[in-house]
Design goal:
Elements lengths: L8 H12 L2 H7 L4 H15 L4 E4 L2 E4 L1 H21 L11 E6 L2 H18 L3 E6 L5 H6 L5 E4 L8 E8 L2 E6 L11 H6 L1 E5 L8 H8 L5 E6 L5 H6 L4 E5 H11 L1 E5 L10 E7 L6 H20 L1
Parallel strand pairs: 3-4, 3-5, 8-9, 8-10
Antiparallel strand pairs: 1-2, 5-12, 6-12, 7-10, 7-11
Length: 305
């Protein structure tokens, strides 16, 4: 194909629709009207002599040709963006957004300080949070997220990673709970009714694996998929829960909750909060600045505890 005859903006159209699989969302993503986006898609179809995307019950489905082109087009656009972006980054005048793949636990504990710092240092920068769906690596690859913040265990080589805090767990209960005082061993712990936070809907967690090694089981009376609903439930019931210490310390004084050290050790793949980014953007000035800002926020909170 003669590139002089191709509007390279059409590749941006393609990349956006591949990411969103929805014309309206893709148009919004790149600040185009829906008619203009549809017109551009028609032009690209003509150039490439393929339908590229076909309307289906769940959105726009890529054709085999689109799937073949997608990783190459995305890589070219990413390289071009990195090459053209300024090497110097001025946060005070910057206008852009960063997307973070993380859960409501990290939103509750890190975002208030992050937004306060951005208001002070970089008022034109916005933050978008997308809930984890077990797809952090895929989102970073596709530039659907700029950073991922959470616990990930083994990290593929293509990603940069920094351990930014410990992730010890506490057992949380209402102040008047029978386990709020006295002996707190594995047997009493297993006999209680438990609340399990399971963002992906898993019926059990690392606590159950640890109990099984001691020949014990527990009753999980309730599962929820968000951390922020937990304190109110615990305060109004005889359930106990085992959650990261950072969020339990945040809510305990607000709800009159009792914290006790978890009798189950935190496994290595849950022991640290990790910040991930794609190495292809590791030296980009804006990404470096934002990454260092996140480091500083977590370090300051860690030092204040």
């Amino acid at each position: 194909m003669n590139l002089r005859r191709l509007d390279l903006n059409l590749l941006v159209i393609f990349d956006a629709l591949m990411a969103e699989r929805n014309v309206t969302r893709a148009a919004t993503r790149i600040a185009l009207s829906q008619p203009a986006f549809s017109n551009a898609l028609s032009r690209l179809r003509h150039h490439l002599k393929d339908e590229l995307f076909i309307r289906g019950p769940d959105g726009m489905l890529p054709t085999p040709r689109a799937l073949e082109l997608a990783p190459q087009i995305h890589a070219v656009l990413t390289a071009l963006e990195a090459a053209l972006d300024p090497q110097h980054f001025d946060p005070a005048s910057a206008e852009r957004s960063f997307t973070i793949d993380t859960n409501d636990y990290m939103v509750s504990t890190a975002m208030p300080v992050l937004m306060a710092r951005l208001a002070e240092l970089a008022p034109g920068i916005d933050v978008r949070v997308v809930p984890p769906a077990g797809k952090a690596f895929e989102r970073l690859d596709a530039r659907e997220a700029d950073f991922a913040l959470g616990t990930y265990g083994e990290i593929p080589e293509r990603f940069g990673v920094a351990i930014i805090d410990d992730n010890n767990f506490s057992c949380v209960m209402r102040a008047g709970h029978a386990l709020a005082r006295g002996r707190f061993d594995l047997k009493r712990y297993a006999q209680a009714q438990h609340l399990l936070v399971t963002p992906r809907g898993d019926p059990s967690g690392f606590v159950d694996e640890a109990l099984a090694r001691h020949g014990l089981t527990r009753r999980i009376a309730l599962t929820v998929n968000h951390f922020t609903v937990v304190p109110a439930i615990i305060a109004a019931s005889d359930l106990i829960t085992t959650i990261p210490r950072r969020i339990s310390e945040l809510y305990a004084p607000l709800y009159g909750l009792k914290l006790r050290p978890s009798p189950v050790a935190t496994p290595p793949n849950y022991a640290h909060i990790q910040l991930l980014w794609h190495k292809r953007l590791g030296q980009h000035a804006a990404y470096t600045w934002f990454r260092e800002l996140l480091f500083g926020i977590v370090a300051r909170e860690r030092g204040s505890r």
